[in-house]
Amino acid sequence: MDWVKRSNKNERLWLLAKIEFKLRYYENKLGLLWALIKPLMDIAIYYVVFQVIMKQAIPAFASFLFIGLILWNFFLESTTGTVQILNTKKYLYEYSNMNKLEIYVSTLLSNTIGLFFNFIMFLLFLNILEKDAMHTSFYTLWIIPLFINLFILSLAVSLILSNIYIIAKDITQVWQVFTSFLFFLSPVIYRLSTFKEALPTFDYINPIAGIIINARRTTMESTNPDFKLFLFDFTYAIILLVIGLLLLNKLGSKAAEKL
Questions:
Q1: What is the pTM of this model?
Q2: Which terminus of the chain is less hemmed in, N or C, by CB atoms within 10 Å?
């Protein structure tokens, strides 16, 4: 019976994720194509600014940007898109047997579908169009634990922000400003040496920076991740997740009456 219940719960989570993904993209005229076009448009903009105008001379710069942007966009969409989730999806936990944590997980799974398509695009781009880059090797499989780290981190931050929103709705604006600042404190658009020179040891303070650094090491340099950095990032994610779950237990239980 427990196995059946778990199976039904997993099926429900996946169904909700697919529904949300379809609603997000299929209402647009471009549909799913928009999920693929957006990172390509971002790449084109940053490529012109940093490679053509500022001449950073980073090898395989388009792929360098691609992997950084799709990981950053997943984090950004997963956190900004869930700040008000306890309000916008109140009907799910009030009128069904879904618990609140399932709602968060299904939303992040929806974003995972988009990231999967973008990552396939990145691999095709890297292997077919980037002549000077190392091609995909078995080191690329490290992207799985790195993504799990990113997923846990995004879930943790989502839990924290959405529960703070119950008592302080200004958190939405605060987070928008903070993520704009955090983007330029992450090595998304410039080389690691420049990042380390300007902000030494900051890759150990900023977990999203560490995930992007290790993703590039494994997918573009065909080498192992920096295990010390990986451990730091995972530890941050777990600590933040515990904080998020505590807030959900304390504040989330009153969400229906306060929102």
A1: 0.86
A2: N
